[in-house]
Amino acid sequence: MATLELYSKGESVWIADPDAVWVSAQLLQDYSPGEKQLLLQLSNGNEVHYPVGSPSDLPPLGNPDILEGENDLTALSFLHEPAVLHNLRVRFLDYSSIYTYCGIVLVAINPYDQLPIYGEEVIDAYSGQDMADMEPHIFSVAEEAYRTMTREEKNQSIIISGESGSGKTVSAKFTMRYFAAVGGAAQQTSVEERVLASNPIMESIGNAKTTRNDNSSRFGKYIEIGFGRKGDIIGANMRTYLLEKSRVVFQVNSHSLFRGKKFTWDKTDQKDRSSMSNIYRLSVHDCCCCVYVRHQQSETTISSTSCVPPESCLK
């Protein structure tokens, strides 16, 4: 708890609001221990009396204006819920930035829009740079893990977590895109493409509608990417697939079961085995995800994926 001397006239505080969650207010008089209320002025000019039963009931203090929009939450004088939410809001609305550091943790806001901040020129800008020298970005976290791995020759892990619809899957895709770009020649990106091409299969099986997201991933996965001595990608595999199995036997109100309905396996002309392509179709609610699988000798690879209307699927 902040010292009581800080609650002096002119200081800003945060008070709970039923609509805006938190609103800023200014103290109109000093607080003295034992007082049962604070006299505050809201941003709209209204004066309110804030009840204080004990010092623990005092509202959270606001940060100085100079710290608004800080790119690292740990730099704030007061780190609490309203301070975090306000700083993220300022960075998103005033600075058009969806990323903010919290120490070594990267906080991301899903903009629900395509942003031009993931191109090759951005990858080149973050390659070889320290996190402290660059603006917060998912590429900066990926670069830190990549440099530590190549320098210390130790395995690194990036944990991407968040609630439904927060953008975890997309963040994982951008991370793998960065590794593919900085990890070697252009042909190495085929590894990333093969990993990403498996997403329609997993999502058709493990995605379902929730109250927060119409196409929510109801599964967790651990993707392991292998690098060679020169830092180039040499392979990738999925070590763990955790499915929300409770959804199979129980359905929450306003939620749906898993999207996958049926699986079919069609084979083309058997005469030319070397160039034969198999199509693995996953019929989902509004589209049919067609995954083209090509056999070459003893190896089976995913060559491309697409989602089309159900009537366009092969019969």
From TrEMBL:
PROSITE patterns, alphabetized: MYOSIN_MOTOR (PS51456)
Positions of ATP binding: 162-169
SUPFAM superfamilies, alphabetized: P-loop containing nucleoside triphosphate hydrolases
One record GO biological process: actin filament organization
Pfam family, one: Myosin_head
GO terms under cellular component: cytoplasm; membrane; myosin complex
GO molecular function, one term: microfilament motor activity
InterPro entries registered for this protein in UniProt: Kinesin_motor_dom_sf, Myosin_head_motor_dom-like, P-loop_NTPase
Keywords: Actin-binding, ATP-binding, Motor protein, Myosin, Nucleotide-binding
Domain Myosin motor: 68-315
Stored PANTHER family: MYOSIN, UNCONVENTIONAL MYOSIN-VB ISOFORM X2
Family the UniProt entry places it in: Belongs to the TRAFAC class myosin-kinesin ATPase superfamily. Myosin family.
Protein's name according to its UniProt entry: Myosin motor domain-containing protein
